[in-house]
Amino acid sequence: MYVAVKGGEQAILNTHKLISETRRGDPAIAELTLTQISEQFGLAVDRVMAEGSVYDRQLAALALKQAQGDAMEAIFLLRAYRTTLPRIAMSEPIDTSRMTIRRRISATFKDLPGGQVLGPTYDYTHRLLDFALAADGIERVQAAPAAEPLDQLVPRVVDFLGNEGVIQDERDDGQDEVFDLTRQPMSFPAGRDQRLQNLARADEGFLLGLAYSTTRGYGYNHPFVGELRLGEVTVEIVPEELGFPIAVADVTVTECQMINSFRGSAEQPPQFTRGYGLTFGHNERKAMSMSLVDRAMRSRELGEDVRHPAQDEEFVLSHTDNVEANGLVTHYKLPHYVDFQAELQLVRQLQTEYEAARAAAQSKEAAE
Amino acid sequence: MSDMTTNYGDDGYNFAYLDEQTKRMIRRTLLKALSIPGYQVPFGGREMPLASGWGTGGIQITASVLGPDDRLKVIDQGADDTTNAVSIRRFFQTVADIAVTESTEEATIIQTRHRVPEAPLTEGQILVYQVPEPEPLRKLIPRESETRKMHAYAEYGAMQVTLYEDIARFGRIAKTYDYPAMINGRFLISPSPIPKFDNPKMANNPGIQFWGAGREKRIYAVPPYTSVHNLDFDDHPFEVQTWQGCCSLCGSTVSYLDEVITDDKGSRMFVCSDTDFCNTRQAEAPAQTKVAGGQS
């Protein structure tokens, strides 16, 4: 006779041993070190830091190692760890115009003060497999440093447009408390602080898809990359006992300012508007997607029709978080014996009734 | 190409990268596109070693029409020296080993993004446009199933209405680029994001014009000497952009000008976006004093 196994504690312990074994792979192959991951899988680490919202390369590398390179699992690990950390302070807003620039491009002006700085980008590589990378010990090409260092202060492109008054003015709204998605529940209508925070942690793939939909007609806004910049910025905090800002860290960030045309409304003159994206680490795709979706979600305040998914803040904000999305979708793997049994009973009963009703109708037809 | 980290010249890729069957399929598409001017012909677009939306449609067309004796010119925003143009030109130099040129006149094939060269084309030349969004009606109706029906019934009233709405609201048609054009009196096209300044150059052109949308897998064409009508109204006729000044480098008053920010205070100058046109003019008039124009 078959008896259902109770508990499953032993089975769970065994899966842990199995993943440990699978993660390690062939023991004859040297084990990956965290430094190797953080140095050579830099972009994977950056994504995990951004969506895990913890700026720590070592931890992100550890999460990636533990998750066998599965970005979403690694993000999950980091988020869960993040919960256990106390909040020491709120930083001052970072000043990206003082960024130590590694890459800075504008698609709106051919040339501009500070220049176009291509930096490290795959954009102009041809996507052909480089078989030389498969070999060990091949000497890699190295870039020679520029003769002149870049300016300390590289003006932001949208500020030029701002000075001319052709782009919608944006400034600090003087609000003391910034919405904190990690401590407060989501609320609607959501302020821009809440929306941007959500997008900064949002799943890159989902955000990319939403951003793509806005450019393919589901919420059309023709975007121009006003500026995309990558580099290091200093994070400062003002400790209460000191009363002046002190630098606590240098972090790598990617910032994107997207310019969109706006034909104006009854209250506002025709002008450009912007979408904003900022992420930890080198995450251009994410920063661009973020700024596109940010702009799409401003439809309501700009008096545009809200007709498409990317413009609907409730739709977007409720579905961007991959830790949450992953949780609900994968929970279907959990046992659902009890509710399924209830459904099964009901379907059987309804089927019987359906058949009976049909048979009755047929016999009535035959009689007529 | 010793300066490149990837060397694919000798890795056994076919001439111009694509295999012969793919090229034949694309050439058939091109013939069909020429036979039905302005009609978007679906084709089996391939994955290319460049991101979709970066010119893969144009590259697939160029690869299919390119022969060993061709001279290829690649421009982006009208310029031969912009990053994307350099990258694509380098691609064809390595996978097809063909001659390249920056001269519009000398080129047999010109692949472009965003501009039609200022210098007129001649018979036998092929202009290949990279186009991100082939469907002119998409912004009005995002669903492909609907827009295809609208093309079938030549139902273009919706586009005319959006232009009218601009007039009602702004007193003018507010479309500045990707200006809808009717080809041969039948199909409406999205003429790639070229500024409307370039639309008149498409009409009755002696050259062959192809548009390739790789991501959306559509090709369309305007054969030589074909009519191109830019949608407008009798009392609001189609008109193109004009500038107050002239090019700061060559003094041209007839070309499309780009704005360049020159200092932190936001000073600007205007220069031709078509680098070959500008350079040619500068070379032809070395004695002539340069006219500084367009400063603000």
Automatic annotation (TrEMBL), chain A:
InterPro entries: PhnI. One of its GO terms (molecular function) is lyase activity. Keywords: Lyase, Plasmid. This is Carbon-phosphorus lyase complex subunit PhnI.
TrEMBL record, chain B:
InterPro entries: PhnJ. The keyword Ribosomal protein does not apply. Its EC number is 4.7.1.1. It catalyses: alpha-D-ribose 1-methylphosphonate 5-phosphate + AH2 + S-adenosyl-L-methionine = alpha-D-ribose 1,2-cyclic phosphate 5-phosphate + methane + 5'-deoxyadenosine + L-methionine + A + H(+). Keywords: 4Fe-4S, Iron, Iron-sulfur, Lyase, Metal-binding, Plasmid, S-adenosyl-L-methionine. It comes from the Bacteria. Catalyzes the breakage of the C-P bond in alpha-D-ribose 1-methylphosphonate 5-phosphate (PRPn) forming alpha-D-ribose. Belongs to the PhnJ family. This is Alpha-D-ribose 1-methylphosphonate 5-phosphate C-P lyase.
